[in-house]
Amino acid sequence: MYRLPLRVLAAGILSTPLLSLAAELPYRDPALPVEQRVSDLLSRMTLDEKLGQMLMGARDWVGPEQMKKLNMGTLLSGGGSVPRPNTVNGWVAMMKGYQDAARSTRLGIPVLYGIDSTHGFAHLPGATVFPQLVGMAATRDEALVRRAGEITAREMSAAALYWTFGPMVSVVDDIRWGRSYEAFGENTELVSRLGAAFTEGFQGGLKVYGPKAVRPIATAKHFIGDGGVAFGSSDFAMAGGRSKLDRGDTRGDNAALLARHLPPYKAQVDAGVRSVMASFSSWNGTPMHANPHLLNDVLRKQLGFTGLIVSDWEAVQLLPGSFDTQVATATNAGIDVLMEPQKTAEVLAALRKGVTDKLIPQQRIDQAVSNILRVKFEMGLFEHAGPVEAAQAGVGSAEHRQVARELVRKSLVLLKNDAALPLKRKQHILVAGEHADDLGLQSGGWTLEWQGFFDNNTRLPGATTIIDGLSNVGGASTKIDFDPNGQFAKKVASAASPADVAIVAVGERPYSEWLGDRSAAELSLSADDLALIARMRPLARKLVLVLVSGRPLILGDALKKSDAVVAAWLPGSEGAGVADVLFGDAPFTGKLPYAWPKDAASFKAASAPADERRASLLFEVGYGLAK
Ligand code: BGC
Ligand code: BGC
To answer: For position 16, what pLDDT does the model report?
Structure first.
């Protein structure tokens, strides 16, 4: 851990005015041990100041004045919630407004602002968008995942943001779950290893800027068992969709469930993660937001977690009882920060009532506030909450995009190849499929919007689509014709005069959370996709199917009809990485983080009996051809 040495270092460099002020108020003295600063500050706080720290507002409903009025300790941007203009300067100005207001409160406690930078700072047009975690998992490359964490922290720091709600360290049992692409796969060991690498990278990512830079914090989520939910155990409707798995119940033998879902959290705590988000899901019937055993006995006592625990978005309101009861239950279970962004004043009132009525022990409040303050002190937020100006030139820089492109290259999994790949320069190549030319489709959910976007390539400046990449990497000697619908004039290609290769890029449209829950049948390539493959088949000697999706899709006939099949996952802003590998400039090294189902009828989740599962698969976890 780097925290102690840095603090000692910082004390030596700080300017005199700050030190003299520090002498007046111990909690302001960065030379004192964090625990001493925490207890000093806590001893000066009124009950309302303490309760304010536990609130989490969102920019949509809470401006600097309201934040100040409630002494609010934390804020967030939900998916797609961005300042106008959505530029680095726009973020810096917004954060300055909040931090100035926080500094002007009686005790001047800085506000902690969280955001889902799950695959890069993908809220900002022009930032580097990394492959979604499913693609990172296919690389199995800890060093690269660590780099992605570092770069994400650096690009966020340019905007004065230091808290990401990631990595998601779910061990996913069932790819019908709409969050499968946000995870590192179905293998506990891989999830643990890569999750820890991301957290180390993110939390250590600003060390390059010297001791005055904030130490940013990652969030391991969603504790615990979010990826283990049973199909059909969830059934609620919101935002135009009905869940099948998301927010459901994780069921089974307790010891077996822990063996499968706890190691990633052990790895996170060992890596020094400073925040954990509780899961919407329940564990053998007990909602995780009302589960003191797992939150306290297991996460805090057994694993030794000393950071803060945040609830998930309005999850408290899904607990039984009145709102007051829900708030008391979650707080008593161990939630420190309540992400109830539309009800901050109500949460404050409920907490106050809970303490007055002795439903919430004062000591639990002190503990929660200590956890929050500890993290803020460790981060160095009291000393420097502003942006890292030196990081601003790096946002979406060529150097950062190069790392993303490398991740894309290593993420591609070759599932089949009958002498169709690599592509050769001088070939005549037809490209079809909307996924070949759409930055939103290739980036997936949590990109600019909660549900992602598509059909507007201007929204990610500096990014490269797959077709851009093929043209650039193929160069002038390669003849490429593209039509999203595969409508090519006879003189371009025909059955009588076929092109050398047809690339057909198909897959999923972006989604997030329960809006991505599917039945097994719905994981099949669509009728349109199959028709496109059929249309392209006679137009080229070889057909290469490129799948742009957040999870394995059921291929049906498409497997036979294709000479090569490549899983490209959701590569993000650097589509050229796909082209690098298709042209053989980089080798295929990616391996499946999820097993690949054969068909809908025999579909089995990972936890099914081993022989049944095996019989249901086309490819096992870890599969991936080299050429
Ligand atoms: C998601 C979390 C996310 C939070 C804040 C929730 O709906 O489940 O993963 O961090 O929203 O956007
Ligand atoms: C927010 C997301 C959140 C979701 C959950 C959306 O409105 O933008 O961040 O995860 O609601 O319901």
So the answer is: 40
Task: Answer yes or no: do 103 and 158 share one domain.
Answer: yes
383 within some domain: yes
5 pLDDT exceeds 60? Answer: no
Per-residue pLDDT of 24-49, as tens digits, reads: 899 999 999 999 999 999 999 999 99
Domain total for the chain?
Answer: 2
Same domain, yes or no, for 490 and 575?
Answer: yes
Range of the domain at 288: 6-40+53-389
Whether residue 78 has its Cβ less than 6 Å from ligand 2 = yes
- Residue 81 CA to ligand 2 center (angstroms) comes to 9
State whether residue 301 is helix, strand or coil: helix
Residues 208 and 118 in one domain: yes
**Residue 516 belongs to domain with CATH number:** 3.40.50.1700
Q: Would you mind telling me the total number of residues written for the chain in this entry?
A: 627
Is any atom of ligand 1 closer than 6 Å to the C-beta of 165?
Answer: yes
Determine the pLDDT at residue 211: 87
To test the pocket of ligand 2, the residue of 116, 246, 312, 313 to mutate (highest count of ligand atoms within 8 Å of its CB) is 313
Catalytic residues: 312, 513
| Nearest ligand 1 atom to alpha carbon 78 | 12
d(CA 22, CA 572): 45
> Does residue 20 carry a pLDDT above 60?
no
How many Å lie between the centroid of ligand 1 and the Cα of residue 177? 15
For residue 48, the one-letter residue type is: D
